[in-house]
C-alpha cells in the first residue's frame, strides 16, 4: 500500500486550491460540496521518495503535519484552521476544523480485511472532514463507514516515522546510565573534574569545608535553562543508547561487565570488552560505506573512568573527539543510527518524514544522506521499501536523476495560501531557482566527475535525457548519475581545453574528466590541444577520455535518418521529432491561430539534410524561411524536446531518440567510470605519500644503501605520471649523489637525519610545485627573454 496523494483544505497556510476553482474545465466531483466549491489542495506523492521544496513560510513543514493528521485523524485542532480563509468564523454552526484526505494505491495481492466497501478496491481516498464523520471515496463514489470499519481501515494504514534532525551523537555517555542506574550530576565528567579541582585547592580540608564545596555541585538546579539542557542531554543519551544497543546490537549485559572491570582495575578485560564493542559497531553499522568523505574512518569507543567516549579515527590514523571535528559527521551518524535502529524493529513499510535534514550537513554529506534515503525506499536486499517524504532548502539534497520526485510549494498572494507548482519537473527545475535561491540544474561547477561539453544545448539534452531515461527504466543503469557527474558547458569547443586544465592541472588531486566534442573542425582542433597539440608540450587529457561524436556514431552501429552525417548532438534527433519540437517552440511566441500550418513542412528539413546540411542547419534555415522574423535557438529546441518527451512520451521519433541517447549515455558513463578508476589507482601524489610514509614508519634510526636505492626507485616510478617528473628525477638524482648510494665501500646511508628530511621533502614535492606554479607569473620570463634578445 502506497500513499499517492495528500488533500489539504483550511489547514494553517493551506486554504484551498484557487487555481482549480478558477478553471472553467474543473468542476466539483460528484461527492464534493458544490456551493460554494472549495477544492482541496492536492499534493501527489511518489511511491519511493518525494522531495518538497519551497521558500520560507511556503507550507513545506505543514505538509508533513498534514500527512500525519490525514493518516491518524489526530491533532486536528481549531487553532490550526487557516486564519485568512473566508471560512474562518466564530459564529454558531459555522465553526469548522481543517480537513484532510489521503489516497492509497494497493498492490495486487493486498486487500483491506473487514471493510466490505473496500473489498475489491485497488485505490481509495480516506477523508477526514474536520468535525464531520470520516468517509472514503472509491471510483468517484462516496461511502460512509461505521466507526468499527474506520478503525479497521486505520489499523491497516502505514505508520509514519520522523527523524529527530536536531539531535546529534554525544561526545560521551554514562556507563552507569546504560546499565539502568539513576543518573546524578556526578556521572558527568565535567562535574567530577570541577569538584576535584575545588578539593585539590584546599590545603588542609575539614569535613565542613568539603561539604560546603561539594553540596552545591550535587544539588539539582531547577531553572528553565537547566531543564532544557537536561531534555537535550536525555535525547542525546537515547540516541547513543540506540546506536549501541539497537543498531550495533551490543548486549546490555556487556556494559555491566565493563563497569565492573573498570571498578576492579582489570585493564585487560576493559580493553577486551571495548574492543568487542567496536567490532560490533563496525560489523553492524558499516557507516564507512555511506560516508564518502572518508571511507577509512572508524567510529571508536574508548572507556574513560565512568564514561564511554565516542571518538573518530580518520584515514591518517589520528583520533579525534566529536568536538574536534565538524558537526556534519555527528548529525549524519545521528540520522543513520536512527534509521538503522528503526529498521530493526520495523514490521512493515512505513512513511519516513524528514523536516530539513540538511541543516548541519555539507554538500557532500547531503549527497551521502540522499543515498541512505534511497536505500531505505528501495532496499538492496529486495524487501519492500518504505516511502520517504522530506522537506529541504538545499539543492544538494535533490536527486537530479529523478526530477519527478520534486514538489515545489509556493505561497500565493493575499488569501490564496499554499499552492503546488505543478510543472516543476517539466520546466527542468526552473521553479526551484526562486524556492532554493540557487540554480539547481544545468549550472556547472567542476565536481567529482566531470563531463565537458561544448554548449548549453548539449548540457540540457544530456542532463534531461539522462533523467528521462532513468525515470522510465527505474534503475538508472546505463545513464549518467547526475548526483556524481557534473556536466560543464564550455561555451564552445575552444573553451574545453582550458576548463579541463583548470579541473586537472592545478592540484595533485585530479578529478576524472571526459570531453565530448563535435566532429566538426572546431571539435577536431580542440581534440588536438587536449591530446597535446603541436604547440603544446603538456597533455591535458588522454585520448581514451576524449569522445568525438562522429567517431562514436560510426562505431555505435546505430542507424540515423537518411542523409544525416552525425557531427553534433542535434544530429541524433529524428527529423520528425525535431520538426515537432520546433513547432512547439513557435507557439510560445505566436498564437496557434496565426501559424500557417503549410509554411513549415517536414519535407523542407528532409530536403536540406539530403543536400548535405546538418540537422540543426536544416531546421534553422527552414524555420527562418517559413516564419520571417522568428528564430529558434539550440537551447530552446532542447527544452522543447524534453517537455515533449514528458508530456507525450510515445510521440513519433521518441523511441529512436531514446535508443540513440541510451547508447551515447551508456558510453559516456563507461568512459567516466574508467577515468575515475584510473585516477584512484594511478594518483601519483598518493603513491609518493605512501612510499614516504612507509619509509618514515619502518626506518627511524638508519637505512642501508640497498634499501635506500630501492626506495628511490619506488619514488621514481611513483612520479612517472606526474607533470613534475623532470624536476623530481633531478632531485632524486641529487639525493643519490649526496648520500653516495652508488658507493659500496660503506653499507649504510650517512647523515641519516638529513636523508629523512630529503625524503620527507619529496613527499610534499608535487603539492608544493602545483602551489608554486599557481603563484608564478610565467609570462614575465618570456617577456624578459624577448627583451634580452632585442638588446642582444
From TrEMBL:
Coiled coil: none annotated. Residues 167-399 form the ATPase AAA-type core domain. This is AAA family ATPase. Residues 768-792 are annotated as: Disordered. InterPro entries: ATPase_AAA_core, Bact_Antivir_Def_Nuclease, P-loop_NTPase. It comes from the Bacteria.
Amino acid at each position: 500500500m502506497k500513499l499517492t496523494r495528500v488533500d489539504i483544505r483550511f489547514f494553517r497556510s493551506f486554504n484551498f486550491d484557487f487555481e482549480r476553482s478558477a478553471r472553467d474545465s474543473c468542476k466539483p466531483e460528484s461527492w464534493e460540496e458544490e456551493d460554494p466549491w472549495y477544492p482541496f489542495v492536492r499534493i501527489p506523492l511518489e511511491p519511493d521518495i518525494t522531495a518538497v521544496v519551497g521558500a520560507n513560510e511556503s507550507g513545506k513543514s505543514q505538509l508533513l503535519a498534514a500527512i500525519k493528521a490525514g493518516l491518524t485523524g489526530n491533532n486536528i485542532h481549531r487553532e490550526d484552521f487557516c486564519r485568512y480563509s473566508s471560512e474562518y468564523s466564530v459564529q454558531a454552526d459555522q465553526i469548522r476544523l481543517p480537513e484532510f484526505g489521503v489516497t492509497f494505491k494497493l498492490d495486487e495481492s493486498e486487500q483491506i480485511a473487514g471493510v466490505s466497501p473496500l473489498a475489491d478496491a485497488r485505490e481509495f481516498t480516506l477523508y477526514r472532514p474536520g468535525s464531520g464523520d470520516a468517509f472514503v471515496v472509491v471510483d468517484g463514489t462516496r461511502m460512509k463507514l461505521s466507526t468499527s470499519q474506520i478503525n479497521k481501515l486505520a489499523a491497516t494504514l502505514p505508520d509514519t516515522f520522523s527523524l529527530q534532525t536536531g539531535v546529534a551523537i554525544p561526545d560521551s555517555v554514562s556507563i552507569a546510565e546504560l546499565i539502568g542506574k539513576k543518573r546524578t550530576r556526578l556521572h558527568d565528567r565535567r562535574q567530577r573534574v570541577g569538584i576535584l579541582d575545588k578539593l585539590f585547592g584546599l590545603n588542609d580540608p575539614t569535613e565542613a569545608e568539603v561539604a560546603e564545596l561539594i553540596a552545591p555541585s550535587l544539588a539539582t538546579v531547577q531553572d528553565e535553562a537547566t531543564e532544557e539542557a537536561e531534555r537535550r542531554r536525555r535525547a542525546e543519551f537515547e540516541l547513543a543508547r540506540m546506536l549501541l544497543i539497537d543498531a550495533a546490537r551490543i548486549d546490555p549485559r556487556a556494559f555491566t561487565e565493563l563497569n565492573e572491570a573498570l571498578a576492579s582495575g582489570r585493564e585487560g578485560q576493559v580493553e577486551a570488552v571495548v574492543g568487542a564493542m567496536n567490532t560490533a559497531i563496525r560489523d553492524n553499522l558499516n557507516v564507512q560505506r555511506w560516508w564518502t568523505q572518508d571511507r577509512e574512518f572508524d567510529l571508536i569507543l574508548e572507556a574513560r573512568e565512568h564514561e564511554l567516549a565516542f571518538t573518530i579515527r580518520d584515514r591518517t590514523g589520528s583520533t579525534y573527539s566529536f568536538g574536534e571535528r565538524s558537526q556534519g559527521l555527528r548529525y549524519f551518524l545521528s540520522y543513520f543510527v536512527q534509521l538503522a535502529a528503526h529498521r530493526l524493529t520495523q514490521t512493515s513499510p512505513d512513511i519516513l518524514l524528514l523536516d530539513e535534514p540538511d541543516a548541519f550537513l555539507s554538500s557532500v554529506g547531503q549527497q551521502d544522506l540522499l543515498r541512505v534515503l534511497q536505500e531505505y525506499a528501495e532496499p538492496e536486499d529486495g524487501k519492500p521499501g518504505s516511502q520517504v517524504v522530506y522537506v529541504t532548502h538545499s539543492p544538494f539534497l535533490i536527486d537530479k536523476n529523478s526530477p519527478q520526485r520534486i514538489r515545489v510549494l509556493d505561497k500565493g498572494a493575499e488569501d490564496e495560501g499554499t499552492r503546488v507548482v505543478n510543472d516543476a519537473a517539466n520546466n527542468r527545475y526552473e521553479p526551484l531557482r526562486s524556492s532554493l535561491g540557487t540554480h539547481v540544474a544545468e549550472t556547472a561547477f567542476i565536481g567529482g566527475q566531470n563531463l565537458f561539453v561544448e554548449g548549453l544545448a548539449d548540457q540540457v539534452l544530456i542532463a534531461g535525457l539522462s533523467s528521462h531515461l532513468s525515470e522510465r527504466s527505474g534503475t538508472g543503469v546505463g545513464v549518467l548519475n547526475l548526483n556524481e557527474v557534473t556536466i560543464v558547458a564550455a561555451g564552445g569547443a575552444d573553451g574545453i581545453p582550458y576548463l579541463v586544465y583548470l579541473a586537472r592541472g592545478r592540484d595533485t588531486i585530479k578529478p576524472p574528466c571526459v570531453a565530448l566534442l563535435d566532429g566538426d573542425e572546431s571539435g577536431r582542433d580542440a581534440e588536438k590541444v587536449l591530446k597535446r597539440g603541436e604547440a603544446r608540450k603538456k597533455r591535458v587529457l588522454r585520448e581514451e577520455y576524449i569522445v568525438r561524436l562522429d567517431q562514436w556514431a560510426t562505431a555505435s552501429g546505430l542507424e540515423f535518418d537518411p542523409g544525416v552525417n552525425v557531427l553534433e548532438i542535434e544530429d541524433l534527433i529524428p527529423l520528425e521529432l525535431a520538426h515537432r519540437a520546433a513547432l512547439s517552440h513557435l507557439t510560445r511566441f505566436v498564437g496557434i491561430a496565426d501559424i500557417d500550418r503549410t509554411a513549415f513542412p517536414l519535407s523542407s528539413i528532409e530536403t536540406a539534410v539530403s543536400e548535405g546540411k546538418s540537422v540543426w542547419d536544416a531546421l534553422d534555415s527552414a524555420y527562418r524561411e517559413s516564419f520571417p522574423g522568428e528564430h529558434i535557438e539550440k537551447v530552446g529546441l532542447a527544452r522543447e524536446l524534453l517537455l515533449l518527451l514528458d508530456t507525450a512520451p510515445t510521440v513519433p521519433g521518441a523511441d529512436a531518440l531514446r535508443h540513440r541517447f541510451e547508447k551515447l549515455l551508456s558510453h559516456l558513463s563507461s568512459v567516466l567510470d574508467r577515468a575515475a578508476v584510473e585516477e584512484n589507482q594511478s594518483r601519483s601524489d598518493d603513491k609518493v605519500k605512501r612510499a614516504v610514509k612507509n619509509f618514515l614508519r619502518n626506518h627511524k634510526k638508519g637505512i642501508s644503501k640497498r634499501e635506500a636505492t630501492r626506495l628511490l626507485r619506488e619514488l621514481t616510478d611513483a612520479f612517472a605520471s606526474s607533470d613534475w617528473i623532470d624536476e623530481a628525477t633531478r632531485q632524486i638524482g641529487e639525493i643519490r649523489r649526496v648520500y653516495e648510494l652508488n658507493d659500496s665501500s660503506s653499507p649504510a646511508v650517512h647523515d641519516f637525519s638529513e636523508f629523512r628530511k630529503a625524503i620527507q621533502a619529496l613527499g610534499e614535492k608535487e603539492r608544493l610545485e602545483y602551489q608554486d606554479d599557481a603563484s608564478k607569473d610565467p609570462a614575465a620570463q618570456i617577456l624578459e627573454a624577448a627583451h634580452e634578445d632585442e638588446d642582444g
